[in-house]
Known about the structure:
By secondary structure, this protein is mainly alpha-helical. It has helices spanning 20-32, 36-53, 63-74, 90-94, 104-108, 114-123, 130-151, 157-167, 184-192, 201-211.
Amino acid sequence: MDYSLEYNSERTTLIIPEYGRHIQKLVNHCLQLPTPEERNIMARAIVDVMGNLQPHLRDVPDFKHKLWDQLFIMSDFKLDVDSPYEKPERTELEAKPEPLEYPKLASKYRFYGHNIQTMIDTALTWEAGEAREALYVVIANHMKKCYLNWNKDTVDDAVIFEHLLELSNGQIDLQNTDETLSEFKELMKKRKNKPSGKPSGKQKSNKKKQHK
């Protein structure tokens, strides 16, 4: 192996930079060994060194398998050794994953968040009655608060009712009812006045009087 002085401009790009240039040189040297026995011995030694350089990955499932895969990757898939695992194929590692399909409604009304859809689906499982109707209004109010947090402007209740109808696949229709949603100030006030769990100054003073 040649360990003569090298300039950065003359060095080749590392395939897996986190292992450093010396490991890459060991892999390159292993490729040049003439016999399978020599290559197998050196390949196992390189994998052991790679494992010592990545101790935080020891709890990862198939840790050794990952190291051998990385060894073949650093050899540009040219290393001919007896691996305890199936040799990875270049085409498999370079294959692009299939694009994820995002729900159309979720992407259309992102400002409502994912929990709204869960709340709607849950409400639809409730038994028909006043409790379920009241939950519909709670959900609509929460949607209005989310909308105003996103838009920082006014919004007509009819818009919220229309979105709720769409998100519930036409099953929750508040458009032809007399329901009126809370005003922006009231919605924000509810959030600001949420109990913190800590006693107020008056509560502290009353407790002191009781102990006297």
